[in-house]
# Entry
Amino acid sequence: MHEFEIIKKYFSKISKKNKSALNLNDDIFFDKKKGIAISVDTYNIGYHFINFKHPDLVIKKILRSSISDLICKGVLPKFFFIAGTGNNKTFSKKNLSLISKSLRQEQNKYNISLGGGDTTFSSKLSFTITSLGYSKKIIYRNKALLNDDIYVTGNLGDSFMGLQILKNKIKVPKKLTNYFVQKYYLPNIQLKLTKKLLNFANSSIDLSDGLIGDLSKMLNDQNLSFTLNEKKIPISNNLQKIIYMKSIKKIKLVSNGDDYQILFTASKDKSRIIALTSKNLGIKISKIGKICSNKKRSVIIDKKGKEIVLKNKGYVHQF
# Structure
């Protein structure tokens, strides 16, 4: 059963009286009166990270992916709580030392603090991270407006290529291997943009499950569709090299998730302030499409002006 089918069928009714739960249709809990925003994410070995050979890198990846839920809402993360299930092998003294060192580095990098957590014994390794921040205002998921422009930060597809390399599904030169693997483990989340988003974004989501899947989630309770321009979807020069070397279609690489960039919509009259913000912060922000009426179906247009039939809509949580 699909993750959202489970939420809708079994849990939505339970949360109806709790406005802060946002109908369980956003990535966070937000109590406007108290100014508190909370995000919870669970990561399982074999699904969310392929192995635990590099615990120092894995813990950085999952922490960054967790706080990105708050960042894309315009909320600066302040505290995080971490719960882990594992055994004597996964939680060896060496691994725990590496995890501790990485968490300390991430605290300094993102100005966040460990608030607590829990550990339990299990043969299956997993982590659950709760992130907390303070704000009186957020950018909601389902507030896109007709004719909004669609924007995305950074580049897409590098993390997926790193995962393919780690799974030995593709071979590339060593220099490129190092680049993509690093992008997989260490996503460049856009902390500096957090509060600026509140000045222009109508709706937002972080790209965890893939461009098309997350864009669809952003519109799931609205009578809207989207048109994307494939040519304008940003990718790195290194990914462009792989596309040329391996003759891979660009669209197959940019909608597989794990980018943790910010996808947002904004009114057309905000284009100037967005461009200025991008320049002042040194953050790449690309306009990649627009929001349309649901009378039109959602489409992606390639560089020749033809519609692309997309089979892969990103990562889907199935049970």
